[in-house]
Amino acid sequence: MLASVILACALTGASLLASCSPSPSGQERSSDAASQTVTLTDCAGRTVEVPRPCKSIVAIGGTSLRLVSYLQAVDRVVGVEEAEHKDVVSCPYRHVNVKRFAQLPTVGEGGSKGVFPNEEALALLRPDVVIANVDRDTADTLQQRIGVPVVCIAVDEGVFTEGFSENVRTVGRAIDSEERAAEVVGYVNSIKEDLAKRIAGLPEPRPTAYVAGVNFRGGHGFDGTEAGFSPFDACGVTNIADEGALKPGPYTIDLEKVAAAQPSTVFVESGNLGLVRDDVKENRAYFQSIDAVAKGRVHTLIAYRFYMTNAEVAMANCYEVGRVMYPDRFADVDPMAKLDEISTFLLGAPIAADLEAAGYSFRQVDLLSDED
User: Most buried pick, 133, 134, 171, 344, via CB within 10 A?
Assistant: First the structure.
């Protein structure tokens, strides 16, 4: 019996790859009004019946609890993954709500250890709905075993994507927060539109840039970069890491390609600035050969991935990239103040000061200097 339970839980490690396919109306009221349920189609294409009103929620897997937080429904959360008990400033939704989360019972480990829900704990809590970043088979099995509706979201690391918006809408339908979900989607789209207006009409060719120190499976130095880097895409910047990349996402680049491309500006994720400085100490001549480094055109960004994408930090990074690359068009924007504006809307609290106190900030750095 124990072995079968462990095997079933292990199946939850797979990530959801399906697209959301909501009905045209988004939801359909049950024909039996007395039952007070709503039928919806989740992001795995599953038909799920959820109760109304929705008074209690559990969210498992990457970004699930973040979306519940964006929808201002933290007060209805009744259990969290063990990882959510730890305060991590670079994971803003957790940092803002850690006092609340720390008081709640655990329903699995979560975090980098994977999604292994504790079925017994979930069954005892019996929330009205479970929001889960799992595949459809795992969701079906979990729903059957705990007797609680399980609504799947999709894996989407973007911010200005339809996948992100549909995740927000799906969670909004599931937890009876559709009005707030529409506000969140509208707000994010307004940021996207503002960025597009600021870079409209830029001459070709667009300026080039390189981002280093990107987190993926741990910290990385100068060779840790990303193809399809969202802040570059949103600001019309040519990413030299896109050339020859097999697919969008983080990877380790051949450093000779960076030197050959000679990006006009280099960005470094501030949390890994120390690793990049270690690289400079080991190969100073290489970095002196990169014009942007030699002339001090290096700026820090704030890593925005922790248990998937922190949308508020990602959007603030867009404004910092824009400010550096097109100072005239972003002269009226302070990216750290913009970060507070966005986080206050999404999470109800400013976070820039706490991030900066922990070493996460936007600033110009001299990599060839011995000082940070």
Answer: 171
194 and 316 in contact (C-beta within 8 Å)?
A: no
Instruction: Tell me the average pLDDT across 204-215.
Output: 94
Closest CA relative to residue 47, chosen from 68, 8, 20, 65 = 20
Instruction: Specify the DSSP element, H or E, that contains 250.
Output: strand 249-252
Res. 10: pLDDT tops 70: no
**In this structure, are residues 81 and 107 in contact, taking their beta carbons and an 8 Å threshold?**
yes
- Tell me the HSE value of 213 on the side-chain side, using a 13 A CA sphere: 24
Q: For residue 341, how far is the Cα from the chain centroid? A: 17
Write down the pTM of the prediction. 0.89
Instruction: Report in angstroms the alpha-carbon separations of 344 from 170, 187, 303.
Output: 22, 12, 19
pLDDT, residue 13, reads 38
d(C-alpha 270, C-alpha 188), whole Å:
24
* Largest separation between any pair of C-alpha atoms in the chain: 75
Cα–Cα distances (Å) from 364 to 262, 270, 316, in that order, read 18, 11, 16
